[in-house]
Please model this.
Amino acid sequence: MFTGNKVAVVTGASQGLGAGIVQAYRNRGYRVVATSRSIKPSHDPDLLTVAGDIGDPATGRTVIDTALKAFGRVDTLINNAGIFMASAFTDYSEDQYRAKLSTNLDGFFFITQHAIAAMERQGSGHVVQITTALAEQADARVSSVLASLTKGGLNAATRSLAIEYASRGIRVNAVAPGIIKTPMHAPENHDFLASLHPVNRLGEVEDIVRAILYLEDSGFVTGEILHVDGGQSAGH
Model:
C-alpha cells in the first residue's frame, strides 16, 4: 500500500466549489494540481496550478503530465469543471450548445483518459464527477436540457467506467448536487433557488466536499451517483 503523500487533481478549481475541494484535499495532506481558465499561480509547493481551457485536449494532458512530473502519481481526479445555462430549449444558441459540450463532456473525456492511464500503471485510483440532480429529476421551474444532456452523460459514463476498471483498482463515482451557494448564483436569486429543494435552502460548498471525502474513504463504493441535493432527486 502506498504510504506517501497522495496526489489529487481538481478541475474548475479557481473559486466556489472547486476551491473548496482543493482546500479539503490539502487539509488531508494531499498534494494537489488545480486547473481552470483563470486560476492564479500558487505559493504552496504542494499545490500546483495550471491555467487552461479544460475543453482543449491539450489541457488535460498538460495537467496530468504536470502532476506526474512534479509528484510522481495521480491518486484522485475530481472532474468539477462545468458550466450551466438555464434557457428554454428552443432559445439555446449553437455557441451555447458547443460551449456546454466542450467544458462538460470534452473536459471530462480528455483529462480522465490521461488520469486513468496513470492510475492503471500504479494499480489504484479514484475518479469523481460533479454532475447535477436535474439530470435525473427534471423541474418545470428550471429549463435545463443541456445540463441533463451533458451531466446525465457523465452519470452514465461514471457507471460504465466503474465497471470497466473495477478489477484494476480504480473506482469511479459521481456526486450529483442540488444548487450550491457559490459565486455562480447572484444573492437576489437565492430565495427562489432555495425553493427548488424540499429542504428549502441552498446547499453549501461544505455539503459537497463532505460527500466527495466520503467517497474518497469508501473503498467498497464504485459506480455510485451520490445525490447531495436537499431532496430534489426524491421529488417535490
User: Anything to note?
Assistant: The chain has a mean pLDDT of 94. The domain at 7-177+204-226 is CATH 3.40.50.720 (Rossmann fold). The helical segments are 16-27, 57-71, 94-122, 145-164, 190-195, 205-217. Strands lie at 7-11, 31-36, 47-51, 76-79, 125-130, 170-177, 225-228.
